[in-house]
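Supplementary Methods. Inverse-folding protocol.

Structures were first reduced to a discrete structure-token string of length 37. This string, shown here, constituted the complete conditioning input.
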């Protein structure tokens, strides 16, 4: 039971990290294009 919960939380955290990375990347690209224009 606890192993299942551990696996689920592990997957969620990695998924959140992936999303955060994507968001940061988008924000950086947007600010870069704004800066260059």
């Amino acid at each position: 039971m606890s192993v299942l919960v551990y696996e689920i939380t592990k997957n969620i955290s990695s998924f959140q990290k992936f999303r955060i990375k994507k968001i940061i990347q988008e924000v950086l690209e947007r600010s870069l294009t704004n800066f260059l224009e």
